[in-house]
Write a structure and sequence with these properties.
This protein has 24 helices and 16 strands. It is of the alpha+beta class. Strand 9 and strand 10 form a beta hairpin.
Amino acid sequence: MGAAERVAASAGLLGSFSPSQGLEVDDAFPRGAEIFCRLDGHLDNRGELGDLAAAYRRWGQGLPARMRGDFVLLVWDPERREGFLARDQLGVRPLFLAEAGGRLFFASELRDLLARLPATPAPDRDGVAHWIALSTRPGTGTLYEKVERLGPGEMLRLGPGGVSRSRYWAPRFQEPLELSAGEWAERVRERLRGAVRRRRDPERRTGVLLSGGLDSASIAAVDPDSLSACSGTFPEHPQADEAELIAEVRAALGLDGVVAEVRPGGLLASVFEYVAAWRAPLLGWGDFWTLPLLRAAAERGVGTMLGGDGGDEVFAPRVYALADALRGGQPRRVLELARRLPGSGPHVGRRREAAMVARLAIVGALPPRPAGWGLPGAGDGAPVWLTRTTRRRLRRSDDPDAWKRLDGPRWWAFAAHGVSSGIESTGVFEHQRRRAAMAGLEARHPMLDLDLVELALRQPPEQTLDPRFSRPVLREAMAGLLPDSVRLRPQKALFESLIASAIRGSDALAIKEILTASDAEVGAYVDREEMVATLFGAGPLSPGEEFRWMWQVWRLLTAEIWLRSLSAATGLPEPKQPLSQARVEVRST
């Protein structure tokens, strides 16, 4: 799709609405007879829709359902004093909302919304509890009290009668398409190629964050012409380092680009930089090396960076087909499917196979529990150092069976819920958009293309199951495009050693100072003595324990720095211990 058929990102939306005074945008009130339209994000099918004001006159509030891309749309009719706000179907572009002084304030960036409110809202205790417990909070709440997100595929109708909220799009079950493996591969390949082309930068170069993994390599492979491959390598951490695989993909596709050679350092500094810039805690731990890489790409003419996020969810094995077989009275079918799950086989053993069947078939077949339902002992698996009050908050605000309420078989419902709201609720889109913005780039996600998602949701569940590896259809679609060393590789890179060494290395004293301080803000959520003993007094850890320890320290650390920023009168206080600096060497290839 060419530049003439796209609408690129605007500077963002910022405004407010009240039934009595109407709409205000950028400190102005739209007047006159013309339909007022403002788009934040990317409209990928402008050629089909034409002028947005004319499209609104034609389709009215049905317009957002016809739009494709990552967007928030504001439409206002000054004569009728009514309009709406709508967010794209998968929630890639955000919109934040808060009420104050009789007005509804809205902004496409959280920090801009907070700046417009009379006072900074307090931390939302349920949100903070989920953050430090490594849990994804359901719903549209944020880490600030009474600040919400407009949900994926949702619309806010604005008019003299007030504000009403509804969902204009939701995933709808359709019977699977009965295609051969070759036909599926061809359709997925072409749909992904279209998704990548629609997301290319119309004016500057387009980059791809290329690892040695299947998803990012597939994005590069379907349309490699003039792509700039941007990669990180980790010579001191072989479990994370994919330098050889990245080199194979670059050579096979003829890609130039930028490589960042990364060593531990700068982890804690990246948290302070992010919190100061965005007034939110940092979700991902990779900014200390990814941000220098993105900035180098921008200096070399890249304007849009593509990522492989969403591939795991879009092409995930439909494991709850076991639950549907059990609900249909087919116990033998349950066992047949269990033996086709990724990683299954004779080596698994009967005990582990029975555990998989119990979790996926029996628990998956049970009716959905009400939101907030949980026994007093529920929430086990959460950190032992959480207070009782925090555990209660987790139980009462959780909704682990929300996916079961979708109207369709369980295999489809779990997948549809994951791609239509599960990914968005993690905050990954917000994080990657902000990180790209700090480098002067736009972040886009071809795997989360609505047409590709709707196709993938019609794949027969049996075709998604392969004991050798996950995403078999995507792997087949990449045959002849990617080296088999990447295409058929069953495992992913492991980053725990890199991040754990950064936490235990040159930033260790500063991290411990922050989290063990007697006035630490996270003390309102954790038993401090138990937390310190567990995280800072533990002996050698197994690989699984190391991974969980890394994430627990990371979430506590990012929450503490953000919470301190809210109570700081002037600036964000840094620890007395010096912060390590990033050790990233960037070179062109």
